[in-house]
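Reopening this ticket.

The earlier resolution said the output was attached, but the attachment link was broken on my side. Pasting everything inline this time so it's all in one place.
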Amino acid sequence: MRFLPLFLLFFCLHTAFSQEFKVVGYFPTYRFSWLNNVAFDRLTHVNICFANPDSLGNLSCEGVNIDPVIAKAHQHGCKVFISLAGGYLAPDAETAWNTLALPANRPAYIQKIVQYVQFHNLDGVDLDLEWDYVKDWYSPFVLELKAALSAVDLPLSVALPGNYRYPKITNTALAAFDWVNMMVYDLRGPWDPTNPGQHSPYNWAVQCVQYWKNQNVAASKLTLGVPFYGYDFSTSPVSSFTYRGIVSQNPGNAYLDETDQKFWNGIPTIKAKTELALAEVSGVMIWEIGQDAFGANAQFSLLRAIDEVVQSSSVRVSAFDDQVLNVFPNPAHGQLTFELPQVEPERIVVRDGQGRVLIDRKDTNKVLEINQLNAGFYLLYVFSGDVIYTGKFLKL
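Inline output:
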């Protein structure tokens, strides 16, 4: 086999073979006062929430200026989506959605969504219509919105319950989303005050991942939702609290999941869920980043805990058809672990963008250390007999 020119190989390998592990954080407008505390460099995406239309289809986040958040996130390489709707809609917003999403009004409304995204230099759209707000018009609206966003090369994600698919979501509409943010929390809560317990247990996360895979959603299109909040069942009515608040009461709570009828996810559980996400899906999603531990308790940050797991994870290298390597998650950090059951590597080569050979290993060790590489893009070759498998990765 002859080598492709290196510059051509960089651009010809489809991005699906270098899937980025996502860390998606929702950021409500009412948390914007914490903007300077958020570690955007530990996020890949932030979803500003929530934007809703007026009767004419003009979007607004309750009149709050979102541009400073977009600029701050972009400075740290974090992509910014606008999240539409939300779990609760004010009556005027609900009426607007039910009118604007009808066939006769839909094209004009979708055009205003696209214009809003472009005007604010956003990177995509997230849809968070929930429960009774998911009407007959939902799936046709999704398909038309997806088509309009694709025309300007913008992705569309969605927030869906942990283990429930709304009946109004067709298979075609579900497949149209670039990924699904699984809301794997609120298993228990104020709506059932006599049934106290963990609202986001680890075993339920495992079940939810399997549920959406059974709905034919690929692992590469799922993110595992984790909570940065908890519920206090000792109060009447049951109240919610932030992770920041429970840690402020006692820093030791950072390593617990419950005390005195209060339930949340501490650092060990969040790390375990991140490891689950690395193994089973394509990212984690956070509701919501403004509830994290900041300031004097920043060392107990849950976002920091997620990042530590992601940074220390071993990147897996597997083979696709056509002799293309899948490197996941990508970017890579410390090492590559080769999982090639049908391939016996005889030689592994890493080249930089200029074609220079930086690593040329002729043993069959399944782990390749890459700590010595500088940050940047690299080409990866695995030689097995007369076959050469090729891939690419980004080293941070």
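Reporter confirms the inline version is readable. The domain at 21-312 is CATH 3.20.20.80 (TIM Barrel). The chain has two domains: 6-11+315-395, 21-312.
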